[in-house]
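Supplementary notes for students who missed Thursday's class. We covered one full example, reproduced here. Read the sequence, then the structure, then the short commentary at the end.
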Amino acid sequence: MNTLRIIRTVLAVAVFGVLTFGFVDFSGIVENPLLQKIQFGPALLSLSIATLVCLIAATLLFGRVYCSVICPLGIFQDFFNWLSGKFNKKKKYGYRRENRWLRYGTLAVLVAAWLLGFTFLVGLVEPYSAYGRMADELFKPIYILGNNLFAWISERTGSYRFFKVLLSLKSVTSFVVAILTLLIVGHISYHHGRTWCNTICPVGTVLGFFSRFSLFGIRIDTDRCNHCQACSKKCKAFCIDSKNQTIDRSRCVDCFDCLDACRQKALTYGLPRRKSAPVSDDPIDGSRRQFLKSTAVLAALAPQALQAKVTGQTAEKRTPMSPPGSQSHGNLLQHCTACHLCVSKCPSHVLTPAGLEYGLGGIMQPLMKFDHGYCNYDCNICSQVCPNGAIRPLTVEQKHRTQPGHVVFDISKCIVNVQGTSCGACSEHCPVQALHMVPFRDGLTIPEASQEICVGCGGCEYICPVHAVHIEGNPVHVEAIVREQEQTINTDNLDFGF
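Structure (token representation):
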């Protein structure tokens, strides 16, 4: 489980427990607790400016953490979300467009009701009040029954540590409203996640407006995202649009469930990423410095352009792939001095000096390419010879779990699809079966990619006759999923070319 999710869950459970005990406690143990004072609805209605300023400031900084950590009704809904996942292992959510008219329309009606003095309507949906009724009318009787049971047992043993408490129905209306609230909110959250928070709840709407501008938030690395929609299917707020790689920050409640769901590690919680400086369209000036810089760039690109012309391959913009053990492009850029010891020692001739793939700072640093071979599944020589710590030592077993890149399959180029003939060369050369054959049509089979187990060896890219597969680099290396049954693949029958 993600660290942020663990912290959020622990805090939410603690807050929920304290708040609930504050409602059910009849012995006066909890008096005037702080958590009750920092609830948004009561603070707004009582015009507690200091509390409102603090909550809005927290939302502008961290997003709607209030809804996932402090609001008891929000945490209560998370319980039903968790419960539904336990009973329905295949439950999936998805992306839905914001129903802005319903959200702000409901808020407008409630504000009007408040201004007109009809606060009962506001109290029906204000989250702290709604949960308070449920706790007092439904949970407290259960707590009292438990206490009375202990009191009865205590009396039979001659002890009077516990005492009986009178159990009575305070209000039929309040009891009925509490039951209806439990049934309605429970049903919606069980089947539709946080829909209540993002359509009906006035606090969710108000804080959602401010969370659009929050400094910290869930962000998508568009370079690493492969549109698999795993995060969207886990998002109980229906706010992640995987197709367009966007997140509706006004509806995100910062539950962090999506962080665990993303296999590509494309989701992070933090500050906005700095955007790269735009490339100037101005012509090259005549200054000496610019001339030398342009000459160096052209010299670095010339071999690649010549190679593309000779091989007839179309140049494609890809994420570069650094050697296993380099951990990330950043680590390579920080430590590598381009001594080329790894390049010279690579038995597969996979490592080549980079041009501008890593940027100007990474010229001549080791880059993985599969034009003349592919990385031996059991080879770790580059990580053993690097003197600078740019490529950290890896055992063979560690390399098997390292994913410096992942396979990308383009069915529109595959000869099985285009020419209607069998192939399967990529699958035969994959040591972990990240590309495996599945039924297609007319008795043929076609490759299917499992990116989470790919180790980025490039065997598929090297052997594919029509360039229907390639390896896309991971800027930060991730851990590949190891399937134990596939560790016994007969690699002795594979021709590694050396």
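Commentary. The longest strand covers residues 469-479. The CA atoms of residues 196 and 469 lie 44 Å apart. If anything here is unclear, bring it to office hours.
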